[in-house]
Write a structure and sequence with these properties.
The complex is a heterodimer of chains A (289) and B (453). Chain A folds into 2 domains: 49 residues, no CATH class; 223 residues, Pectate Lyase C-like. Helix content of chain A is 15%, strand content 22%. Chain A is built from 5 helices and 11 strands; from the N terminus they run H-H-H-E-H-E-E-E-E-E-E-E-E-E-H-E. In chain A, strand 1, helix 4 and strand 2 form a beta-alpha-beta unit. Chain A starts with 5 loop residues before the first helix and ends in a 19-residue tail after the last strand. In chain B, the strands form 5 sheets. In chain B, strands 5-15-14-12-11-8-7-6 form an 8-stranded parallel sheet. In chain B, strands 1-13 form a two-stranded antiparallel ribbon. In chain B, helix 4 links the parallel strand 7 and strand 8. The chains are: A alpha/beta (289), B alpha/beta (453). The interface between A and B is large, with 56 and 49 residues. Chain A: It comes from Paralimibaculum aggregatum.
Chain lengths: 289, 453
């Protein structure tokens, strides 16, 4: 890697980059991807081949007559040209729009998205002035996604970082397998929200459906309204001052701060009894029946 | 008794004993005793223990006078294998076998990198398995599948774009319908961090994917991955063998580039003993059904069929290809090439694990005596990755030339030209499952006229 500059990496094909970074060789001494992000080195907020974009350079795409692939290819092409703010008009509920963006970008959709909208992203700030279908922003690593209206089920499935916000209500299984980051819902959420949650925080200003936080390993869920029922191994916990401050900051940031403050929120965490099921006492083992 | 009279040998059985139960033999009784103490199902590694119709129940019908044989060592027998020919960048392998997905966590760093290096030397591919990418595995693998598994542990879109193929794990043969297992002993700080889990917990992965539920959603999910990878790389669906014909038809409708069927002979690093014994269908049945499903939908040559499960040698490879597989994935046997169950000087199996070499199935404990299925630094030192990589290469190469041996004997200049007609069954069950005639007959169990199959 030492002999290859970032500028050179940007011009390479994927295979050439992999070889230049020491992959696909039998040498034991090459740099690994982990070393590439060593904190002591020169600050990098994306992969070296990620395009340098200028947020003040703005453009628009009319997606009305375009396929998903054409829209996504157009977005990538504009990013390579340095456009840092891209407005997509007439998305018309197409699936998989804006997926796989792995660097900084202001992306605005003027309309609704279908399934898997803005999934697999790492870094962009996205605003969706409409609704989204299932699995919005699934596996998001960082950045922000703000949905102005309602969202479908599995909102933020397996996200690992960033802020994912829906100002309306969402379907079931919100934040399923969540591994980090923050999910904020202005309205209600459906059943099995936070299922097998591992890390991160989820805030629902309205009500939650049944089996909230079922089998959660860790993480924290805050519910502003009623909870139909808690799932296996999910338990209520005391709201701390730190929680109140964090809730106030986050909800204010996205314009979702309730008039009555945040004291009414219920905090739900993992009971941690399932962490080592084999070691439970006989009576505790009935937990999963 | 008078001296010199013939002595009668006493009976070695008690004539008053009525017999032994086949339903409750001592092994079953012991199992009940253990579970009555534990209050939970029993976990173990390895593959199924019971006998099922298997590759040994098939035999080749090489050329004699009715077929022209190909000269071994002199005449070419092509082994090149392409996975996902429709993709912009198909995976091209020199040999028809590759290393299947086994997670870092279940296996040690040394084992994972040795597999990658051995596979690269042999001109074939590896797969990340659950738990995300370890950079050195990617670095050492010339062709590398990135697995998208139900738990999404460690799944990172930045790593996805480095992959040569993306495999959706939907199930595995030895525990169809269940998620993965990694017991707390193996969830070290490093493994836990990669998976975003607390260290030391018993990790039972979800059995369903978080963001899709059925084939209609899966088709859209595949489209998402294609968009994220610019439609470049093959997308593969890995299914545990159960209702294979219907499952594969549904899988084909989701439009992947390859379908991977895992037979019930497949192994695991940890799973409930009963699931390993009592789920799935044997490989010979699964391949035939999968092949028929793909062919019925007119996708032969477009969607690659990969088989894994219980493959031990080149004969098994050749039989699976003859039944319809395009490529073979290996897990358990390449672990054995690494040293699994080998009596190495550093290991004391009876003291350390409570069993003899050759009988160890304790991958789930993290106490692997040969440093393969462990995260323990002291045990990991027992596996020399340089030597292990060479053994993996040797084994993969040997499998290939063994499979070539059968192909040549059956008159094929390409390993992939093997066909069901090159096989006969040694048992009625194998005949019915594999859809090939009973040896020495023209009778295929369950099929009125084999020649019109």
């Amino acid at each position: 890697m030492a002999s290859v500059s970032d500028a050179e990496l940007k011009t390479m094909s994927q295979e050439e980059r992999a070889r230049a970074l020491g992959m696909m060789t039998e040498q034991l001494t090459s740099r690994s991807m982990f070393i590439e992000f060593k904190p002591g080195e020169e600050a990098r907020f994306g992969y070296p081949w990620a395009p340098d974009v200028d947020f003040n350079k703005r453009t628009e795409i009319d997606a009305d007559a375009m396929t998903t692939t054409e829209v996504n290819a157009k977005i990538r092409g504009l990013m390579r040209e340095g456009f840092g703010t891209i407005v997509v008009k007439n998305p018309r509920g197409k699936h998989s729009l804006g997926v796989g963006i792995l660097s900084r970008l202001n992306l605005i959709f003027e309309g609704s998205l279908g399934y898997f909208g803005t999934g697999l992203i790492d870094g962009p700030n996205v605003r969706i002035n409409g609704r989204v279908g299932w699995s919005c922003a699934e596996n998001m690593m960082s950045g922000t996604v703000v949905v102005e209206k309602n969202a479908g089920s599995t909102f933020g499935a397996a996200i690992r970082g960033g802020d994912l916000v829906c100002k309306g209500s969402v379907g079931s299984r919100t934040g399923i397998d969540m591994k980090g980051g923050t999910i904020i819902v202005g309205g209600d959420t459906g059943a099995l929200s936070g299922f097998m949650m591992q890390r991160g925080r989820m805030v629902v200003c309205g009500n939650a459906g049944k089996n909230l936080g079922d089998s959660m390993y860790d993480g924290t869920i805050f519910i502003g309204g009623s909870i139909r029922s808690l799932g296996v191994d999910a338990v209520e916990a005391e709201l701390t001052d730190l929680d109140r401050k964090w809730l106030t900051r986050k909800l204010t940031q996205y314009g979702l701060m309730p008039d009555k403050g945040v004291d009414h929120f219920t905090k739900v965490v993992a009971g941690k009894q399932l962490w080592n099921y084999d070691n439970l006492e006989p009576s505790e083992k009935k937990l999963i029946l | 008794m008078a001296d010199g009279a013939p002595t009668k040998k006493p009976l070695d059985r008690d004539p008053y004993r009525l017999g032994n139960s086949f339903v409750f033999p001592p092994r079953v009784i012991d199992d009940i005793h253990v579970k009555a103490e534990l209050g939970r199902y029993r976990m173990r590694g390895f593959s199924l223990f019971k006998k099922i119709p298997h590759w040994d129940d098939l035999t080749f019908l090489p050329g004699t006078l009715t077929r022209f044989v190909i000269e071994g060592y002199r005449e070419k027998c092509d082994t090149k294998t392409v996975i996902g020919p429709r993709a912009k960048r198909p995976i091209e392998l020199d040999i028809p076998v590759y290393v299947t997905g086994m997670s870092f966590g279940a296996l040690s760093y040394e084992a994972k990198t040795a597999l990658a290096r051995g596979a690269t030397m042999a001109g074939t591919a590896t797969c990340s398995g659950e738990g995300g990418m370890i950079p050195d595995e990617r670095r050492y693998s010339s062709k590398w599948f990135y697995q998208c598994i139900q738990s999404r542990y460690g799944f990172n879109p930045n790593h996805l774009v480095l992959a040569d193929g993306c495999e959706f794990f939907i199930g595995q043969g030895c525990k169809v319908g269940l998620g993965g297992h990694l017991m707390g002993q193996k969830v070290t700080d490093q493994v836990a961090e990669m998976r975003s889990l607390p260290a030391g917990i018993d990790q039972r992965s979800p059995a369903r994917h978080p963001d899709w539920l059925g084939p209609d959603d899966l088709a859209l999910k595949i489209q998402e991955i294609r968009e994220a990878t610019d439609w470049q790389i093959p997308i593969q669906l890995k299914l545990g063998a159960a209702r294979v014909y219907d499952d594969v038809r549904m899988a084909v409708k989701c439009d992947p580039d390859s379908i991977y069927i895992d037979g019930m002979e497949g192994g695991t690093g940890a799973g409930p003993h009963l699931a390993t014994e009592d789920t799935g269908v044997p490989g010979m049945a699964a391949i035939r059904q999968a092949r028929r499903a793909i062919d019925d939908l007119g996708k032969r040559g477009e969607i690659t069929l990969i088989y894994a499960g219980g493959i031990r040698n080149g004969a098994d490879v050749a039989k699976a290809i003859a039944l319809g597989a395009d490529a073979i994935a290996l897990g358990h046997s390449v672990m054995m090439a690494l040293n699994c169950n080998k009596d190495i000087p550093e290991a004391n199996y009876p003291e350390e694990i409570g069993s003899e070499p050759g009988y160890c199935y304790h991958c789930h404990t993290g106490r692997c005596p040969v440093g393969v299925a462990t995260q323990d630094p002291a045990l990991r030192k027992r596996l020399d990755p340089d030597e292990a990589a060479e053994r993996v290469y040797n084994f993969l190469h040997t499998l290939t030339i063994e499979a070539q041996l059968f192909a040549r004997a059956c008159g094929k200049t390409n390993l992939h030209s093997l066909e069901p007609e090159d096989l006969a069954a040694l048992t009625m069950e194998a005949s019915a499952m594999a859809g090939v005639p009973l040896a020495g007959t023209e009778h295929t169990v369950g099929i009125a006229d084999y020649h019109h199959l």
